[in-house]
């Protein structure tokens, strides 16, 4: 708990002077003012986070947190629970979508077992298991408050390790059969929404499954009565271990001055939790894509974030975030590689 409190206190607002300097540099480049749109606001945000203009692409990593969910016994996913552990091995073998997209973007994939039910053994797997999957949140708390805090602290610790290794840009990724159910419950609680607005088809539920999932989320909230003003209470009662871990990753990154690209529905709910812990953490977030999952638009709205891409994806793993990496690299490269009006002898308007 001390680590969590210290991390929250260490998060600083963005550096105004560095942002102004980057705005000035952008204004001298050979283009009409503001014409590079979101690339310009990204360059300014990166400068505010780093405390200086960032004109070289940062070293990048996607952190894929994997965990299982006791709520799967309610029949809320189109896939069986054992797929979580099986996909972890696929990540480690390099064969998953996130491996392809990260490789293409020059990013490494860091795979973490924060709560997979089965024992997964692989030399490259970071085993930080807080418990072997959550309990069924439709019948009681998903985990204890202490476990929720420990899962958040696993994420903080990882961000610290990666920042110390020179990673300058992180992306959130996750794998957990059933995890759109706790994500929907958390979103409904934090956003005071009707669960129907937060519950979607996940990996591909049919209409009957969707109805069952809605009833499950409603029951989870009625049974547990989470206190929306107490983030750890919400995570412990209706959350998940990888969601908690990602919230911690975001807090740890913000405390170390590292920006974080947010993937789809589950990642965005983790970001909401992080921002409830520490409102300034929002300034360190970079949205990526709009997931097809129902509820993602509302989750992004909760954070006031506008996605860059809409590719009708709903995979998770960090795939949407990895696709935003080249856009972020572009924001850095224009600063160092474009000519200025002066250097190119072009008349200003
Ligand atoms: O990121 C998203 O927006 C997203 C939307 C739907 C599903 N997923 C992925 O699918 C799994 C959760 O779906 P489900 O149906 O089992 O709850 C989990 O492994 C997520 O990574 C991810
Ligand atoms: C195969 C598979 C891959 C995934 N990656 C993230 N969630 C997933 C769910 C399934 C079912």
From TrEMBL:
Pathway: Nucleoside biosynthesis; alpha-ribazole biosynthesis; alpha-ribazole from 5,6-dimethylbenzimidazole: step 1/2. InterPro entries: Nict_dMeBzImd_PRibTrfase, Nict_dMeBzImd_PRibTrfase_bact, Nict_dMeBzImd_PRibTrfase_N, Nict_dMeBzImd_PRibTrfase_sf. This is Nicotinate-nucleotide--dimethylbenzimidazole phosphoribosyltransferase. Catalyzes the synthesis of alpha-ribazole-5'-phosphate from nicotinate mononucleotide (NAMN) and 5,6-dimethylbenzimidazole (DMB). SUPFAM superfamilies: Nicotinate mononucleotide:5,6-dimethylbenzimidazole phosphoribosyltransferase (CobT). GO terms for molecular function: nicotinate-nucleotide-dimethylbenzimidazole phosphoribosyltransferase activity. It catalyses: 5,6-dimethylbenzimidazole + nicotinate beta-D-ribonucleotide = alpha-ribazole 5'-phosphate + nicotinate + H(+). Pfam families: DBI_PRT (PF02277). It is an enzyme of class 2 (transferase).
């Amino acid at each position: 708990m001390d680590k969590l409190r210290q991390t929250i206190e260490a998060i600083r607002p963005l550096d105004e002077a560095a942002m102004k300097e980057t705005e000035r540099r952008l204004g001298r480049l050979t283009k009409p003012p503001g014409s590079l749109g979101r690339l310009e606001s990204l360059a300014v945000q990166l400068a505010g986070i780093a405390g200086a203009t960032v004109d070289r692409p940062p070293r990048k990593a996607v952190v894929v947190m994997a965990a299982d969910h006791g709520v799967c016994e309610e029949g809320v996913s189109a896939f069986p629970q054992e797929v979580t552990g099986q996909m972890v091995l696929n990540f480690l073998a390099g064969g998953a979508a996130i491996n392809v997209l990260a490789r293409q973007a020059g990013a490494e994939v860091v795979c973490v077992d924060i709560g997979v039910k089965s024992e997964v053994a692989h030399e490259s797997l970071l085993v930080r298991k807080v418990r072997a999957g959550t309990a069924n949140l439709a019948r009681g708390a998903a985990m204890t408050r202490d476990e929720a805090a420990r899962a958040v602290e696993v994420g903080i610790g990882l961000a610290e390790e990666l920042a110390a290794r020179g990673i300058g840009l992180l992306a959130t990724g996750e794998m957990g059969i059933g995890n759109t159910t706790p994500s929907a419950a958390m979103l409904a609680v934090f956003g005071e929404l009707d669960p129907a607005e937060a519950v979607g088809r996940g990996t591909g539920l049919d209409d009957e499954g969707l109805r069952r999932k809605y009833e499950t989320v409603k029951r989870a909230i009625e049974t547990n009565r989470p206190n929306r003003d107490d983030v750890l209470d919400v995570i412990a009662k209706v959350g998940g271990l990888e969601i908690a871990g990602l919230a911690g990753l975001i807090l740890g990154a913000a405390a170390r001055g590292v920006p974080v690209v947010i993937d789809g529905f589950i990642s965005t709910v983790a970001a909401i939790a992080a921002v409830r812990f520490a409102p300034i953490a929002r300034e360190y977030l970079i949205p990526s894509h709009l997931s097809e999952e129902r509820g993602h638009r509302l989750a992004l709205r909760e954070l006031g974030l506008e996605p860059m891409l809409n590719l009708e994806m709903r995979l998770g793993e960090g795939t949407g975030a990895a696709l935003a990496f080249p856009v972020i690299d572009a924001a850095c490269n224009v600063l160092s590689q474009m000519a200025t009006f002066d250097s190119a002898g072009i008349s200003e308007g």
